[in-house]
Design brief:
Elements: E1 11-14, E2 25-31, H1 35-42, E3 43-44, E4 56-62, E5 69-78, E6 89-95, H2 99-110, E7 114-115, H3 120-127, H4 133-143, H5 148-158, H6 163-185, H7 195-213, H8 216-224, E8 226-232, H9 238-246, E9 264-270, E10 273-279, H10 289-304, E11 307-313, H11 320-329, E12 334-339, H12 346-355, E13 362-364, H13 373-387, H14 400-421, H15 426-444, H16 450-457
Parallel strand pairs: 1-7, 8-10, 8-11, 11-12, 12-13
Antiparallel strand pairs: 1-2, 2-6, 3-4, 4-5, 5-6, 9-10
Helix pairs in contact: 4-5, 6-7, 6-15, 7-14, 14-15
């Protein structure tokens, strides 16, 4: 392994978030051959408590030289191979906050352990055969999940629901390769290969790869979420829309135009999808230097958003200012939000809708009255399904690395079919078939390089 992941010796790290004056428990995790010896050096368990695996001991952590008391704590013992890393693991469950866990970690480092690298505990679990790469990535996704659906998808990966079909595809490719190589080595003793049967098997494998690749957009959406920008002229009700949607008072709402001077964010979950909502400053020409900065930030937010909610004031109708903003954002996925609909009569509503009949996605809201929010969420999900997620019924979702490997396997299999059709020698068949097998193996870790491991595990937090 690289210097980044020198997976030897005993490692230690804080395994819980450290927040000043918050959190009741902080955990220091230690893994390696010297973990038990280190625990016995630092931890005093009064009475006749038994130091056995999967036991929790109560006692005190003391400085081994001065015997100064550092913390009153619990010690969790997990001996190899029944641990997360399949090494001896101990965890000091200390009081929360900053000082206790930092002092305990420092004692571990002074007495033989070294500070773990990001993801090194999980890397050791992979190298020791407890996890494959898809399960390791599932752990990272679960830790970073922003919604219940994202967490469920991560759990599916952790439980092997992605690894199983990948291994089966690779096994099928290996079976085909064995058939071909047997003909190369023992051509005179075996019947000739059935070209059509081989192509049929490859087509089945390619079809399953296509099915898995269809989950990539869903995976990206669940992991990164959807960025939605609310844009429009000043005083059309953008902040009221944000407050009604987020059920909070994140944005200041007044009758004065230009109240919002900067981008205000709120985090929501819509249909299992994490949504980052940006309430932007009203877009208009202005001489106010501060407002100018806010307007420019609004334009940048709209251009960077996955979805734009162009909000207009129903009582003002479709104005020239609305049209100008529409021209600036029409290249983005867009929903027109017709707000303050409670302030107009039915005939005015019909006139307004006729003016904007060319805009397909329109929602009527009265944000100040909390009306129309459900319809807005339905419209967003429909737009997402139409443009981003066409395999949303699946309970797993691949990431970019896995998608790249599957795509490479698919290309290799297509080349195998071309080679067969062109009636090239059997040796040529095996070249791209081996490429497909290798690509599939990189997904689960049967075929893996140091650079791949560096890229995956460097994204983990240190304590995991």
């Amino acid at each position: 392994m690289s210097e980044v992941f020198a997976t030897t010796g005993t490692i230690a790290a804080i395994a819980t978030a450290v927040v000043p004056q918050q959190g009741s428990v902080g955990i220091v995790r230690v893994s390696g051959s010297e973990a038990m010896a280190l625990a016995q050096t630092l931890f005093h368990a009064p009475g006749r408590q038994v130091w056995e695996t999967h036991q929790i001991l109560y006692g005190y952590i003391r400085h081994p030289q001065t015997q100064q008391l550092v913390d009153e704590a619990l010690l969790l013992i997990m001996k190899a191979p029944r641990s997360y890393t399949r090494e001896d693991v101990v965890e000091f469950h200390c009081h929360g906050g900053i000082m206790a866990v930092q002092q305990v970690l420092q004692l571990c480092l002074e007495n033989g352990a070294r500070l773990a690298q990001p993801g090194e505990f999980t890397l050791r679990a992979f190298l020791n055969g407890r996890l494959d790469l898809t399960q390791a990535e599932g752990i990272a996704d679960l830790v970073g999940a922003k919604s219940p659906q994202a967490a469920q998808t991560a759990l599916a990966g952790l439980q092997g629901k992605l690894a199983h079909p990948i291994r089966q595809l690779r096994a099928n490719c290996l079976d085909i390769l064995a058939e071909i190589e047997a003909r190369i080595d023992f051509e005179e003793d075996l019947p000739p290969l059935d070209d059509k049967a081989i192509i049929s098997e490859i087509e089945k494998i390619a079809a399953e790869i296509t099915r898995l690749l269809a989950t990539k957009d869903k995976g990206e959406l669940l992991r990164t979420g959807l960025k939605v920008a609310i844009v429009g002229r000043p005083n059309v009700g953008k902040s009221s829309l944000l407050n009604a949607w987020s059920r909070s008072d994140r944005a200041i709402v007044t009758d004065l135009p230009g109240t919002t001077r900067d981008v205000v964010e709120s985090q929501l979950v819509v249909g299992g999808i994490p949504v980052q909502v940006l309430d932007t400053a009203g877009i208009r020409e202005t001489t106010d230097q501060v407002e100018k900065i806010g307007v420019e930030r609004s334009r940048r937010a709209a251009n960077a958003a996955d979805l734009v909610l162009l909000t207009i004031d129903a009582s003002a109708g479709w104005t020239e200012g609305d049209r100008e903003i529409y021209e600036q954002v029409q290249h983005r996925p867009l929903i027109l939000v017709i707000n303050k609909i409670d302030l107009v009569e039915e005939n005015e509503r019909r006139t307004l809708l006729s003016q904007i009949s060319n805009l397909k996605s329109k929602i009527l809201t009265a944000a100040a009255q909390n009306q129309g929010i459900d319809a807005l969420e339905v419209a967003i999900l429909e737009l997402v399904k139409a443009e981003k997620v066409q395999a949303a019924d699946m309970d797993l979702a691949i990431n970019q690395r896995q998608a790249a490997a599957l795509t490479q396997a698919q290309i290799s299999l297509e080349q195998v079919q071309t080679t067969i059709v062109q009636q090239l020698p059997l040796d040529f068949w095996t070249i791209d078939l081996r490429g497909a097998i290798q690509a599939l193996g990189t997904i689960t870790g049967e075929e893996v390089t140091e650079s791949v491991l560096d890229r995956i595990f460097s994204k983990f937090c240190i304590g995991k």
